[in-house]
User: What shape does this take?
Amino acid sequence: MSSWAPPAKIEDLYAKASGNKWAGINRPTAGARDETAAEVGAADIQLYSLATPNGWKVGILLEELGVEYNAHTVNIMKGDQFSKGFVGVNPNSKIPCAVDRKGGKDGSTEVHLFESASIMLYFADKFKKFVPPTDDTVARAELMNWLFWQMAGQGPMTGNFGHFFTYAPADKCEARDYGASRYGMEVQRLCSVLDQHLETRPYILGEEYSIADMACFPWFHQIVREEGYKIETNNACNFLSSTQYKNLMVWYEKILARPAVQRGVKVCSGGVAKPWLVKEEDK
Assistant: This one.
């Protein structure tokens, strides 16, 4: 049995990744690639996003908060996230990111925000909703446990599964089998973790709906909904048997039924900032 013998430098392997959906924009370096400025609206809060699981998190929270904000669609396939304006807000060039133009104690500081959970925690604390108070150290610890669990585990592992299941080059069959198996099994384990946790409580932190629920909902939504990860012959829900997690499904359906969540997952979808505000005759 032969063993893998990598070249001396990773650059010699870059061509092996050609053919995947993101090959045209992937580079090993950060920074702006053009001088395009970021769009800015009239609201104090500016959101730069796209209707993906990470983007949904912040869209859901802002809709639940009922605050005024401008949403700007970032076309990541065209590389909008590498514009000078976007990089000025988020040097990591990932959606979502946001600007609070009236941050700080006196409302005079412009605050740049990136990483979805960081954005959610900032706005939940600012408006004192959907988050335990800062002096409740026990409840805050539980919140942080689940936010970190989502950011370090559920999101990345589900995304890795989705890459191999849906986006990897069609001819990389062995790599896709390995990746879908490795990450798919981990996604199932993570679903089991949350399913068992929800056996004795309606929401992640107990009786109260919080940003922990808003953060964890989107990535499960991505492997349950028909429009989520899929290929011509199968979809993630069937492949992973996603509906087997009974407690998780009860929680999921309850959150999906919320009007603000239904709006939140549409933020920056189809090239439109807030599609529900577009009149039928304007579509």
The CA atoms of residues 222 and 228 lie 5 Å apart. The chain has a mean pLDDT of 95.
